[in-house]
Amino acid sequence: MFMNFWYVAAESRELTDKPLHAKMLGFEFVLFRDSKGKAYCLSNVCVHRGASLANGKVKGDCVECPYHGWQFQGDGACTKIPSLGKDGKIPARAKVDSYPIEEKYGLVFCFLGDLPESERPPIIDMPEYADPAWRTTVQAFGWRADWQRAMENSLDPAHTEFVHPSMGYQGERADYDVPDLAVHEHVWGVGTMTTFVSPDLPHEKMKGLKGAGQMEAGSTTWGVGQSVTKLHFSPIAWAHQYTFTTPVDRHHIKRWFLQARNFRTQPEMDTPVNERNNIVMLQDKVVVERLAPFCTPESSTEEVLVKSDLVIVSFRDKLKEFERRGWRIDLEAMAAAADGKAFAIPSPARRFAKGWAIDAAPTVTPHA
Ligand code: FES
Ligand SMILES: [Fe+2]
């Protein structure tokens, strides 16, 4: 798992006037809104005696710890220690990590890392979201799966034929193959588009159209957990699916799935469209949750790869690049630490302020 990327913690509508607990990358966080409605994300471990801030209350612009009432404001600073009385001096180390937050596309994105703003990998651009020619729906899914296995499934052009009967023929067509992939790369990801024969979908924009049944599709990643899958059912009927995958821990992920479509854009079509998406996601889930080994193997010598896996190999190369930047969390070092020892993902403030009660999570040392 990697720090220094934006991860979705929740939908904006879920963040109300109460603290909201979120687990991401195996770490605990508390999200809350201040009195003006601005959202914040803090490390959830109270630096007094380790209580869960998410079990506390929002008081004014602060979250109040449920154990002894210490209050922490949005930048992570403790502003009140009730036991010290009203003139008590607050120790400088009484602070928790505060993570940059952005609300976009109805989602709450948290930047889990310490990079300054100018160096942060971006949130994927979704131009369809504000475009009246498109209609967007949002769905959330929980899988018991490895985040990288799930991302590789999103990228995989050779699984559609077999996993998704509505888009393929289960290998029954004698002329089936995956054309040579043209993998494109950008600074934060990789992707490909490919053309394949797909059953017609019963939709007015597709009827009688030259090219119906000839589908173009492909996915591109942004960072480690964001991707867009473009499904072009015909030259004019398109669905663009933005998937935001947050590792909850090593064995669980949450996926927010935003699908924009430029056909059947009437709001009453949301329900049937979402039902179809539920089926398609379930088809992927049952495969990905049962992969062995559970996580993507460290070495590709433990698998047999073929040319249709090229985009997956490229994604793994991209992850190696992120690892060389020092962003991969060292899960083994964390597991070897004293039982139950608390770590925090370092926040940007750690770059210029010292004196943190909780150690920063170790990262994998980049290879030369
Ligand atoms: S543990 Fe949070 S105030 Fe004591
Ligand atoms: Fe799939």
Please tell me about this protein's structure.
It contains five helices and 20 strands. The longest helix is centred in the last third of the chain and has 19 residues, at 270-288. Strands 12-18-17-16-15-14-13 form a seven-stranded antiparallel sheet, covered by helices on one side. Strands 2-3-4-9 form a four-stranded antiparallel sheet, with no helix packed on it. The mean pLDDT is 92. It has 368 residues and is of the alpha+beta class. It has two domains: 5-114, Rieske [2Fe-2S] iron-sulphur domain (Rieske Iron-sulfur Protein, 3-layer Sandwich); 127-321, Alpha-Beta Complex (Naphthalene 1,2-dioxygenase Alpha Subunit, Chain A, domain 1), CATH 3.90.380. FE2/S2 (inorganic) cluster binds next to loops.
Mean pLDDT over the residues: 92
Spatial extent as radius of gyration: 23 Å
* Hetero groups: FE2/S2 (inorganic) cluster, fe (ii) ion
Distance between the termini: 20 Å
Major sheet details? 7 strands, antiparallel
CATH class identity of the largest domain: Alpha Beta
Low-confidence stretches: none
